[in-house]
Amino acid sequence: MVSSDSTSLSVALPPSAPKRENITPVGSKIAELNESRTELLNRIQGLKQDLKNWRSKLDTQVKIYRDELSELKKTLNVEVEQLRTEFQELRNTLHQQHEDVTTSLKNLGLQDVSEGAKEAEDPKVEGKDEEMHTSSIKENDK
């Protein structure tokens, strides 16, 4: 029944019509969100791969540097050992030369003279030590 009262007249819309209008925009929004989600996941995968590659390159560089340092250390140790050997040879040579000079002096009969010279030099050495001590004190005072 329709009443003649204008205030009571209303057109009733089917309840499903507003839902259909809202469903279409929501569906397109879901599609956009899914597409955006896929793009973000792809970017994340790309960044993960970039990070993996960077780490791999970094690990390779670290290994190369460690190997180089190891080789340098070995080379340095060999050179140090060679220097030690050379210094020991020099010490031995000097010691041998000293013994040869002493033997030559004995053979020439200068051993007695050299012993007397050593006794005479002993006071000079003490005097030199005293001079050095005095000069170092003067330098410290400055």
Automatic annotation (TrEMBL):
Residues 115-142 have a biased composition (Basic and acidic residues). Gene3D superfamilies: 1.20.1170.10. Residues 1-23, 98-142 are annotated as: Disordered. Residues 1-10 have a biased composition (Polar residues). Signal peptide: none annotated. It comes from the Eukaryota. PANTHER family: UVEAL AUTOANTIGEN WITH COILED-COIL/ANKYRIN, UVEAL AUTOANTIGEN WITH COILED-COIL_ANKYRIN. This is CAP-Gly domain-containing linker protein 1. It comes from Hibiscus sabdariffa (roselle).
